[in-house]
Specification:
With about 425 residues, this protein is an all-alpha fold. It is built from 18 helices and no strands. The protein has two domains: about 190 residues, Growth Hormone, Chain: A, CATH 1.20.1250; about 190 residues, Growth Hormone, Chain: A (Up-down Bundle), CATH 1.20.1250.
Length: about 425
């Protein structure tokens, strides 16, 4: 990746395009994409909905209660950093298959009524989730090269849908099973479906693998490029805002006087709005010269949503939820940017690795920072002011991230003619 490159999409090098695939394989790829998307946030939102019950049943203290919600973003940072190496060693499809197996095993392990199993299962499952997160932009690029925006939108929409549905249904499921641990472990069955759905793709890739050694692209040097640095910064800011809002929005509403059921309804509304918002924003951003407009819509909506939390009374919570939900729709746009970048698939994977590893590591400061500041000050004023500053900064980052490359100025004809005259030619010979 050239450090001077400013455009969001780089051309694929010659010979790197994948050969045409049978229709059955393409259909299987779409099914696998949907099943994977349904799983990539379900384990997180399902655990968040059951944390209170799990603490009451298992008896762990406040330290463990604080550690559990931080495991996903830390795993996204640490395990995600190994994705480039893993895909180079195993191949893209085998690496995804391994990650789905880890996800299913970890989620099922959390079904055992033990604090140790809860922690171990969360680490294993979220590590598999991290690898899959980083590898999916490259999977979309390889298998749907001519439909990256559409497939990224489908992938992110199903991801949000899975997270919302599981968050709503997991408590009744746990009550029906008579155990919070069993309810949490049941999410692993959905991950098993993703493993089975992806198996045909992994088998096809294994049978049609070429003997060409995969190219190696080191992820971290990409931070020295303009494109790599901006995409990493963009991913970091949106992840920090997203996890800060997702972690504290319901609790904030309760402290402002709303009932727990009402805050849960507003939380569901926010996530529900983010589903069509992502589709709308990707649709706008896919049009010529409209990518910046899409980023503006998402970033301004997020800033207005944070401002609404800061100045409006709790009765305006539905408006706040809609604004924040629309702002969360920026995630598909960032994933589209990653999928379209890089001259090769290896470079796309490396860019996804560095953006998500660094991004999620820094994003951990969002939920932790808001919680610490609220505990220290006894008020949401300072945390929300700082969050608003980050949201305003996201507008500037989106502006830089969507900058179009400058077109060279046309050279005057007289200047071209003068340049073509040899320096030694003082006059025209007749």
């Amino acid at each position: 990746m050239d450090s001077s490159t400013a455009e969001p999409a780089l051309p694929e090098t010659a010979g790197s395009a994948a050969p045409p695939r049978p229709r059955g394989v393409l259909f299987a790829g779409i099914v696998a994409l949907v099943l994977i998307g349904l799983n990539l946030r379900a384990g997180i939102t399902g655990a968040a909905a059951l944390l209170h019950e799990l603490q009451a049943v298992l008896g762990y203290g406040p330290l463990i209660a604080a550690v559990i919600p931080s495991i996903p973003t830390l795993c996204f940072a640490v395990a995600g950093a190994a994705t480039s190496w893993l895909t180079r060693r195993l191949g893209l499809e085998k690496a995804i298959m391994l990650s789905l197996g880890m996800l299913a095993a970890g989620l099922l392990l959390r079904g055992l009524p033990s604090t140790g199993m809860l922690l171990a299962g969360t680490v294993v499952g979220m590590s598999g989730l991290a690898i899959c997160n980083v590898a999916m932009p490259s999977f979309i690029r390889v298998h749907f090269a001519d439909r990256t925006s559409l497939m990224t939108a489908l992938y992110t929409v199903t991801m949000t849908t899975g997270a919302t549905v599981v968050a709503v249904l997991i408590v009744p499921v746990a009550q029906g099973l008579g155990s919070a641990s069993a309810g949490l472990g049941s999410i692993g069955l959905l991950a098993l479906c993703a493993c089975l759905g992806f198996l045909p793709i992994a088998v096809y890739a294994h049978r049609n693998a070429t003997a060409v050694k995969a190219a190696r692209v080191a992820p971290w040097p990409l931070l020295r490029t303009r494109t790599g640095a901006l995409i990493t910064l963009g991913f970091t800011v949106q992840a920090l805002l997203a996890y800060a809002v997702l972690s504290w929005f319901p609790y904030l509403l309760v402290t402002m006087g709303m009932t727990a059921s009402g805050s849960g309804l507003m939380f569901g509304l926010m996530q529900l709005v983010s589903v069509p918002a992502g589709m709308i924003l990707v649709g706008i951003g896919s049009r010529p010269r409209m990518l910046r407009t899409a980023f503006y819509l998402a970033t301004v909506a997020m800033a207005l949503g944070v401002l609404a939390m800061l100045v409006l009374p709790v009765d305006w919570a539905p408006l706040t939820a809609v604004l924040l939900g629309f702002g969360l729709g920026i995630f598909p746009l960032v994933m589209v940017m990653i999928s379209r970048n890089g001259r090769t698939t290896a470079e796309t994977t490396a860019l996804s690795t560095v953006a998500q590893s660094a991004g999620y590591l820094l994003a951990t400061l969002g939920p932790f920072g808001m919680g610490l500041l609220h505990s220290a000050t006894g008020s949401w004023l300072l945390p929300l002011i700082l969050l608003l500053a980050v949201a305003l900064g996201q507008i500037a980052v989106g502006h830089l991230l969507t900058a179009r490359p400058r077109e060279p100025r046309p050279t005057p004809v007289s200047a071209v003619a003068a340049a073509e005259v040899p320096a030694s030619a003082g006059r025209i010979r007749r």
